[in-house]
Structure formats: structure tokens, C-alpha cells
Amino acid sequence: MSSTDAEGYIAQEPDYLGAGHTVRSWLLTTDHKRIGILYLVTLLFFFLIGGAAATFIRLELATPPGDLVTADTYNRLFTLHGVIMVWFFLVPAVPSTLGNFLLPLAIGARDMAFPKLNLLSWYINLVGGLLALAALLLGGVDTGWTFYTPYSSLYSNSYVTLAALGVFIAGFSTIATGLNFIVTVHTQRCEGLTWMRLPLFVWALYATSMVIVLATPALAVALAMVVMERVFALGLFDPAQGGDPILFQHIFWFYSHPAVYIMILPGFGVVTEVLTCFSRRKVFGYEAMVFAILGIALFGFFVWGHHMFVSGQSAYASLIFSLLSFLIAIPSAIKVFNWSATLYGGHITFEASMLYALGFIGLFTLGGLTGLFLASVPIDVHMHDTYFVTAHFHYIMVGGMVSAFFAGLHFWWPKITGRMYSELWARLAALLMFLGFNFTFFPQFILGYMGMPRRYHSYPDEFEMWNVLSSAGAVILAVAYLMPFVYLGLSVYRGRRAGDNPWQARGLEWQTASPPPRENFGPLPVVTREPYDYHRSDEEPSAREGDLDFPNRSDTETR
Amino acid sequence: MPEALHEPFHDIGKQRSAEEAGIWIFLASEVIFFGGLFLGYAVYRLRLPEGYGAAMAETNLTLGIVNTALLLASSATMAFTVWVGREGLQRATVTGLIATLALGTAFLAVKGVEYYEDIRHHLIPGHPDFPVDVPGAEMFFSFYWAMTGLHGLHMAIGLGIIAWTVHAVRSDRIAWRETAHLHVVGLYWNLVDVVWIFLFPLLYLVGR
Amino acid sequence: MNWSITPAQASTQAVAFDQLFWTMVGFSLCVVTLVGLLIFVFSLRFRARTGVPRKTVATLESRRVEIFWTAATAFFAIFFFWYTSTVSLDAVEAPPDAMEYHVEAKQWMWKTRHPSGVREINAMHVPTGRPVTVFLNSQDVIHSFYVPAFRIKKDVVPGRTSTVWFEATEPGTYPLFCTEYCGTNHAVMTGEVTVMEPAAYARWLETRAEGETLAAEGARLFTSAGCSGCHAEASDVHAPPLTGLFGRDIPLEDGRTVTADAAYIRDAILLPERDVAAGYAPIMPNFTGILEDGEVEALVAYIRTLALEGEGR
Amino acid sequence: MARRTTFRLAGRAVGAFVAMLLLAACSIAAALLLDGLAASVVPLGVAVITAGFVAIAFMEVRKMDAVSAIFAGVAVCFLAVLFGLTFTDELTRAHIPAGFEARTGD
């Protein structure tokens, strides 16, 4: 425990890592920073499992016949890949790790509003993950991550119930985290931190939480209905009893389309922080960025039907969903253009996290544009459920989101561990990831246009060439993903001390020690200036060295 | 007495409103959760009106009315608990909680009796002796079981929390006077009640 | 090794599709180039080491820039919605003279039936130059009927009939895929669609053993399933006569009136207690579980021909 | 003093309970006595009123702060979106029963 003296300064406090070394001190912690680390460990574990499944999938598809694994095994592999990656990696990736660690720091708070709930949500996530893993160890699930009825409810002989329960439970973990974030942002902002002074990372987490809280229950109820159909033989979607499998798709996508924004919105926030810091520039069009984030979060709820253009949904409904899907391109485009414009007139340096962020913009642009193809009804009719769709959402989820995750991880690594990693290796990994990613997934656009359906264990010979390329790219990508594990891992033991603010960034989280003390701040900061004040509004942006005499964003009066 | 103020708050009023905001956000997500079930019910009702009507005749209206009365009463006792809790009246609070607990348990007991009768009448979708031979009747009962089942699950969770709260208030294990604990439990319980207020006409009345 | 990047283009829809598709590819290339250039040029010019003078962007100026690209994006979004949806609106309804094919999907095969009654498995022969409507039914889970060369796809959802139509233009053999994941052998639930010139198609039909038409199969079932015991003209049992029934309005016992369309007749076979015709006792047995889906379909087709004969057509 | 407060609050709760019982009675009576559309609409309308009553009298929505109000409101709006767009599909869809051809082809 820390002791606070009369002036509010915390005397000689160990940082949060040194606040206790027992396993118990970690497993029963209510410190948001430690919970962030707990999440990081579990998420990386799931990322490795999901990645291993992806490797097997690409190996199998390197040749046209199904020769490496059986069809049943293949179906279980891609389901495993989807379920683990979506619900146990992508959805919680940035919010639960970086968000948990940084949100209170970025708003000048001592902790989340509900620290115990925060810890509880990690345990709930763990229980959900273990159930899903149990389903995998017992023999796997073969429904695909979408759990479409009636296959999942009446025909599949795999462990659907267990896996669905795992996802159901993990859903409550994300709801708890989202709820915690919202209340924290509302009640814990430090003095002077008005809404329009919030960093965009915080805005992004706030919007994400909103989507999490209001969309996840739809998934919960859809899965609960599938489980009830399987276990109690209630024919909720059973055509023999008059049930409609398309209704399941409506409820499922009411969650799962907003879920795409749950995954990508935090990435937007991370990239904004990184871009402004390394271009030493105020973010271009702060208000527009805020409204774009909120607009995407809101509109994300109105477009789910574009997943159902060929399902037998009515043509009128399809047109409405198509229009709404085209409209959501507007806020997304605003973000891309504003990021590009942020570079204008800056003092740009190319640290590893900046490379990841720039890569993110490129890949997200491509992913977003191909989204327009799928928003259009006649084009989607040909592209639906082909590799075009696979490529499209991997550009958003992997090219976009995972790049952003790595950008954030590298950006805040010195803050989290207090150590610097090898910049050279990090830049190399960033470049390799960008190349490997495009190598893997660009050929899949072509495969999709040629008509190769997804979830195929074997395929006709005419698709061979592009599949071979894609599999070759996957090898590069796998190496690129493993590299950070090595150099980041080594940095914890060997890295040089980072100092409080190695990037001379302006966020509040950089105004405390690295790693931060248990209480985050000595006296709580008081914000007197706009966010991203890398230069005064009437001043030219200045290079990094010149920043040092720049007045601090907050003064250090005692509250 | 336990400490009312928890990290990271410095102000009990702010902490209380944070707790209330938290439960309201959770209730908002519950609205969407039950909304999915209501959507399914509505879509099929529109498609299979005869089946729904014929099947509804098989539900036990008397027990439905009894349960509605029980749950409305429990909602009132819960609200009473919150009010007296705010005044700091320990005995009245415990009494209110126990009354809510008793009424809620009675609801589940009546529901159990109703389930027993339903099963005896083979009102189970897909059962070979399902008594109503109109398309859609089984779908109605699928939703009957799913909706009352999930509602019952929410009740059971609520009763568990209330039972713990009785103990905690009586032994002063929590700072129930200062924190929003009772209000939070009350809001959850009232939402469960609101869900039933819609379930009752949909499962027992409309189109009977 | 095959380096091609385009699928065969073998239907009228494929032509329209490719025009749309490549327009959007062109537009996307422009946007990617624009964003790429912005990032590349700014990164190069404003990298820390250069001595170029920095300047901040005035608020008014940046507002103008933002409004410009918001408006531009909005314009393109609406434009592409209009441009693509006019095509999809045109394609909703099949032409009325389309040939009727029936396709039954089950784990993991396609059973197709020609208008003439010829049946095939995992194969389908169609003539060029004539619109074809495919009626799709599933016996188990959701499948999806996908012919890349035609750029058409439709989910086959159990419990309802889906339709999709195309007009083939280029003779050749094209793959047919199932694109909705349907279980273990999803990847091998494939087939071939063979497009032939009308003359060649006619010759091909002749070489096939004369398949039973749907109505002929229905006529056979009418006897073998026992329907004729009550519904034949000469029967002693008091049951509604079926000649001329199809398409008429039938008064029901409870006072309502229904049209004897396909759905009604199907229900009358599978759920006879539901809508009993006025003046008849509810004695019709329930055929649920006795007749398969395809058989009910055949019976309804037969009853329809009875009506057409009754009108002297 | 405490006793008086208790009785006053108990009286308020009982009053509210009686009001809700009356509403429930109305909806039962409407469902059993009315015919056609009214037999469906009236009980559901009464349910909405009762739910509103619980929200105001017990859940004290009028004292709710802005965050809670926003989220409760947004949840109801999104529920409306879920229903609205799903029914847009449901009501404009061409329902062709399973296993059959729709039009005459000869």
C-alpha cells in the first residue's frame, strides 16, 4: 500500500509491477493496469491458438485436393479459427488490454469506476474461453463462427452447445467491460478534461463500449435460442415447425455487424494517437473525427442486412440496407482523409508504431473500399460467401485491427513495462507484416472474383495458383507475427529504461512514471489545454527536441 | 460498519450516481436481450396467427393471473424496500426484502406447478401427443418455454441477490444506507417485473 | 498453373455485373492512389529531417477542406447506390416466359429436374438465349446455389422455395458450387451447368430417356398413395372431386373462403384438418411423414393439370 | 418517527400495487370481452401503460441522470430499429411455401 502525505504526494511508491510479487497479488488485483496485463496474456494465448488454426488452413489450401486433414477436421479448424479470433481475440483485443491499461491514465483517474467488476470480467472471459477450449479439446465445433441454423441447431454433431455457451458467457464479460468504460469516462475525468478535450482514443473506447453494451445481448439471445433448440428441442428456427432460419440471421447480424465496429473503432483511436505523436501535429479536424466515430457507432446498427442479400431477404429490405451501408462509408472516409491531412506540415519520424499506423491507413482504405462492393446488391450476389468476402474482412480485421493493436502495443510498451524494445527489429517486423499481409490476402480478392467459395476444404484446379501465393504469404505473415513476441519479450529483461515519456507525447498517460505507480498519478492532473497540443494553435509544429521547453499540458497543482 | 466510499471515488454522491448509471446501462442491454425473443415471437405470430390462438387456449390463465399479481406485489415491496432503505430504517428494509423474496419464490413455485401441468398435458413442442394440431401451435409453445424459462432464470438470479442482500443488510456487511446497492437491486427486480408485464398478455391474453 | 483472374462470362447478368464491377474497381483504384499519394508525399516532404517551412492550417481553410471531402464522399456513396441498385431492381423479376427448372438440394448433392421432367444429379443442361427460372428447395440445411459464370447466387433455405433466374449466352460447361456452409462435404457439393445452343439442347434432350414429368409422377402417386380411393370420380366416399379444382375459390366449413392454389392443396394434403371444405366431413387422413416433399409437389402438379384439362386447354 | 415513515411509504407501495392490479384487470377484461383487433391492442396498450407506471413510480426514471437516460433511450430506439428493419424484410418478402413452384409455366 502506498502512503500519501499531507500534500497528496505519494512517497517512494513502487510501480504497479512491484506492488506485490505473489500469484495471489495478480489474481486478486483490482488494479486496472494489472488486469490489462492479465487480459494481454490470455489474449495472446488465444491469438496463438487461432493463428495456429489459420496456419493449418492455409497449409491445407496450398494444394487443390483435401490431402492434409479430413473434411471434418478442416471444418473444425476454420470454426475454431473464427470463434477464437472473433470473440477471444479481436473483440476484446484493444479495449480489454490497452483500453483497460490506458483509459484511466488517459483521463487522469486513479482506476476504473468499478475495479472489482473489472476483475470479474476477466474471470468471466476466462470461463467463457475455457468452455470454448473444452469444446475444442472434446472434438471441436463444425458450424463456422456464424452458427447458422438449422445446421447448428439440428444437424451438427459437434460440441455446438458448449462452444455457444462459451461465447455467451464471454459476451457478458465484454458487456461488463463496456459498462465499466462508459461509467468511468462519465465520472472519472480529471479536472478540466471536458468532452471536447478527450483524446480520440478515449472517444473511440467510449463509442465501442456503447456498441458492446447494446449489441452483445442480441448475440446472447441468438445463441441462447440455438442452445435451447439443441438441448430442449424447442423448434425456434426449425422449418418443420414453421420456424424461419433467416430470422436467426437477422438477430445474429444485429450483433455481428456492429461487432465489426467493436473490433475496428478502438483501432481508429490508437492510430490517431500514434499519427499525431509522430507527426508532431495536432489531429486534423478533431470535432469531425469525434462525430465520425459516433456516427459509425450509431450507423453500424442499421446495416446488418447486407450480410443477407442472397439469403432470401426481400428485395426492398436489401435496397434499404444497401443504401444505409453506402452511407456508413462517409464517416469512414472522413477518418481516412483526416489522418492523411494530419501528416501535412508535420515533423514526421518513422518509429515502428508509426509504420504500423501508416500501414493501417492503407489496408483499412482497401478494406473499406471493397466493403462498398459488398454493400451493392448485384455485386454482392456474385461475391457473397466467396474469398472476396474473406479477403475484405481480413483487410479490416487483420490488416486494420491487428496492425492498430501492434501500433498501440509498440507505442505504449515503454509506458507498460518501462523498457524500450529494439527499434530496428520492430520496424522490420512492421514492414514484414505489411508485405506478408498483402501477399496473403490480396490474391484472395482475385479468388473471390473468380468464384471460389469460402469454407472449402478442397477446390478445383483453376484456383490453385492464387491459393499457392496466399499460402506462401501466410508463412511470411506467421514469421512477422512471431517476431514481436521475441523482441518485446527480450525487452522486458534487457531493454534500456524508457523514461517517463520517450516519445514526448502529449497525452496524460505520459505525465506519470513509466511504469506508472499503483495510484497512477501523484496529485491528479488538471487539464488546461486542448488535446494533441504538439504545437500552439498559432505556432508552427516543431521537431521533437524543441518540445522540451513547451509548457506542460497540465499543471501539477495538488487537488 | 464497512467503508461506504470505494476507490476511485472521493464523493459518495458521485459514487452513487455511477452505480445507478451502471445498472441502467446493464438494463439497457437486457432490453435488447429480451427484445430478440419478442422479435421472434412477433414474426411468427404474424405468420401463424391460428396456431398461436389455438395454442394460447392451452395456457393456464388462472395461474397466469395469480403470478402477475404476485410479481406486481413483489415489485411494490421491492420499491418499498428502496424507499425505507434510503431513510436508513433497517428493520423495515429487511422486512421489505424478505417480503420480496417470499413473493418471488411464490411466483417461481406457481410457475413450477404450471410447468408440471404443461408437461402432463404434453404441451412440449415436438412431442408426439402434442394436443393442438394447428400449424404454429408448437411454435407458440417453443416461445412460451423459451421466454418464461429465461424470465425465470432472471428471477432466480434476482432472488439469489436479494437473499444475499437480506443477510448483508441485517449484519451490516455492506454500507446499504450510503451506497446505491438497494436501488440497484430494486431497478433490476423492477425490470424483470416489466418483462413479465409484457409476457403476461402475450402468452395468456392476446388473441385468446 | 492458371494465372487467369476472370471467371467465364456466360449469362446476360454476367455482362451487366462485370460492367459494374470494373467501374467500381476503377473508382477504388483512384481512391487508393489518392490516399496513397497523400500519405507518401506528405511523409516524404514533411519528414523530420527536411527543412521545408511548416505552417499550420487555418481553421476556416481546414473546415472548407473537410466539407469538400465529406460532400464528395457523400456524392459518390449515393451515386454508387443509385447506379448499382438500378441494376438489381431490373433483375428482381424473371421474365414471364422463363423455363422452369426445379432443384432440390440436400447434404451433399444437387438434384435437378428439367421442365420436360428429365432428371440429373449434380448437373444441369440449359439452352442459350432463353431465360431460366430455378426453383430451389432444401431437404435439410441451408445451401446456396452459385454459378460463378452466370454471376448468380441464391440461398436454398429449408421451409421455403427460393427462386433465381438467368439467361445463358455462351455454350460451355461451368462449375456449380454450394456457397452456404452445409456440413462435412460442403466442399464437394459441386456440379456442372452445361450451356448448349438450342438445337444441340433439343438433341441432347432426345437422347435422354424420356423422364417422367412432374404431373405424370403425380398421376402415378394419385393411385399408389391411395388418393384415388376417395377422390376418383367413381368413388363411394364423399370426398371433393378434384377436376377443375385448381385456382377456384373454395368455401370452407367455418365460413371462410380460400383459393385452391398450390399452397392450399399442399396444406390440404399435409394438414387436412385445418381448412375443411364446406359440405364434407373431416375424414381425410394426414399425409405428413408419408409423402416426401417432392411427392407432394408432384401431386399438386397433377391436380393442376386436372384443372387445365377441365378448362379444355 | 421511523414508524410513521414506514407506514407512509408502505401506504404508497400498496397504493401503487392496487393501481397496477386495476390495470391488469382492465387488460384481462379487454382480452376476454373485446373482439378482433381491439382484443390484441388494448391489453398490449395497458401493458405499455403499466410498464410506464413501474418506470415512473418504482424505477424513478424522472430522477435518472443524463447517462442513464441516454442509454435507456438508445436501447429502446435500437430495439425499434431491430423490429422495424426485420419487419421491413418480413412484410415485403415473397413467401413461397416449401417444395413448390409459384407460377404456371405452361
Automatic annotation (TrEMBL), chain A:
Biological classification of the source: Bacteria, Pseudomonadati, Pseudomonadota, Alphaproteobacteria, Rhodobacterales
Return one Gene Ontology term, BP aspect. respiratory electron transport chain
Primary role = Cytochrome c oxidase is the component of the respiratory chain that catalyzes the reduction of oxygen to water. Subunits 1-3 form the functional core of the enzyme complex. CO I is the catalytic subunit of the enzyme. Electrons originating in cytochrome c are transferred via the copper A center of subunit 2 and heme A of subunit 1 to the bimetallic center formed by heme A3 and copper B.
Supply the name of the protein.
Cytochrome c oxidase subunit 1
Q: Where are the transmembrane segments?
A: 37-57, 77-107, 119-139, 159-183, 203-227, 247-271, 283-304, 316-334, 355-379, 391-412, 424-446, 466-490
Source organism of the structure: Roseivivax jejudonensis
Q: Which family does it belong to?
A: Belongs to the heme-copper respiratory oxidase family.
Please list where the region (Disordered) is annotated.
508-559
Q: Which Pfam families does this entry report, sorted A to Z?
A: COX1 (PF00115)
UniProt-annotated location(s): Cell membrane; Membrane
Give the EC number(s) listed in the UniProt record. Answer: 7.1.1.9
Q: Where is the composition biased (Basic and acidic residues)?
A: 530-559
State the UniProt keywords alphabetically. Answer: Cell membrane, Copper, Electron transport, Heme, Iron, Membrane, Metal-binding, Oxidoreductase, Respiratory chain, Translocase, Transmembrane, Transmembrane helix, Transport
Q: Which residues form the Cytochrome oxidase subunit I profile domain?
A: 26-528
Lineage: superkingdom: Bacteria
Matching NCBIfam families, A to Z? CtaD_CoxA
Stored Gene3D superfamilies: Cytochrome c oxidase-like, subunit I domain
The record's PANTHER family line, in alphabetical order, gives: CYTOCHROME C OXIDASE SUBUNIT 1
| Membrane topology according to the record | Multi-pass membrane protein
Which pathway, per its entry? Energy metabolism; oxidative phosphorylation
Extract the GO molecular function terms from the UniProt entry.
cytochrome-c oxidase activity; heme binding; metal ion binding; oxidoreductase activity
GO cellular component entries = plasma membrane
What gene is this protein translated from?
A: ctaD_2
TrEMBL record, chain B:
Q: What are the entry keywords?
A: Membrane, Oxidoreductase, Transmembrane, Transmembrane helix
This protein's GO cellular component annotations are: plasma membrane
Q: Where is the Heme-copper oxidase subunit III family profile domain?
A: 1-208
This entry's Gene Ontology molecular function terms read: cytochrome-c oxidase activity; oxidoreductase activity
Q: Gene3D superfamilies recorded for this chain?
A: Cytochrome c oxidase, subunit III, four-helix bundle
User: Subcellular location, in the record's words?
Assistant: Cell membrane; Membrane
Q: Which Pfam families match?
A: COX3
The UniProt record lists the EC number as 1.10.3.-
How this chain sits in the membrane, per its record, is: Multi-pass membrane protein
Q: Which family does it belong to?
A: Belongs to the cytochrome c oxidase subunit 3 family.
Q: What is this protein called?
A: Quinol oxidase subunit 3
Instruction: Give the originating organism.
Output: Roseivivax jejudonensis
| Encoding gene per record | qoxC
From TrEMBL, chain C:
Q: What is its main location?
A: membrane
Location comes to: Membrane
Record domain Cytochrome oxidase subunit II copper A binding: where: 96-207
Q: How does it sit in the membrane?
A: Multi-pass membrane protein
Q: Which Gene3D superfamilies match?
A: 1.10.287.90, Cupredoxins - blue copper proteins
The first-level EC class reads translocase
Question: Which positions fall inside the Cytochrome c domain?
Answer: 213-307
What parts of the sequence cross the membrane? Answer: 20-44, 65-83
User: GO biological process: any one?
Assistant: ATP synthesis coupled electron transport
Q: What's its EC?
A: 7.1.1.9
Sorted keywords for this record are:
Copper, Electron transport, Heme, Iron, Membrane, Metal-binding, Oxidoreductase, Respiratory chain, Translocase, Transmembrane, Transmembrane helix, Transport
The reactions it catalyses are: 4 Fe(II)-[cytochrome c] + O2 + 8 H(+)(in) = 4 Fe(III)-[cytochrome c] + 2 H2O + 4 H(+)(out)
List, in alphabetical order, the Gene Ontology terms for molecular function in this entry. Answer: copper ion binding; cytochrome-c oxidase activity; heme binding; oxidoreductase activity
Q: Name one GO cellular component term.
A: membrane
The yes or no answer to whether the keyword Transcription is present is no
Q: What does this protein do?
A: Subunits I and II form the functional core of the enzyme complex. Electrons originating in cytochrome c are transferred via heme a and Cu(A) to the binuclear center formed by heme a3 and Cu(B).
Q: What is this protein called?
A: cytochrome-c oxidase
From TrEMBL, chain D:
Please provide the record's keywords in A-Z order.
Answer: Membrane, Transmembrane, Transmembrane helix
Q: Which InterPro entries match?
A: Caa3_sub_IV (IPR011743)
Keyword Transmembrane attached: yes
What PROSITE patterns does its record include?
Answer: PROKAR_LIPOPROTEIN
Where exactly are the transmembrane stretches of this chain?
39-59, 66-87
Instruction: Quote the NCBIfam families the UniProt record gives.
Output: caa3_sub_IV
Q: What is the name of the protein in this document?
A: Uncharacterized protein
Organism whose genome encodes this protein? Roseivivax jejudonensis
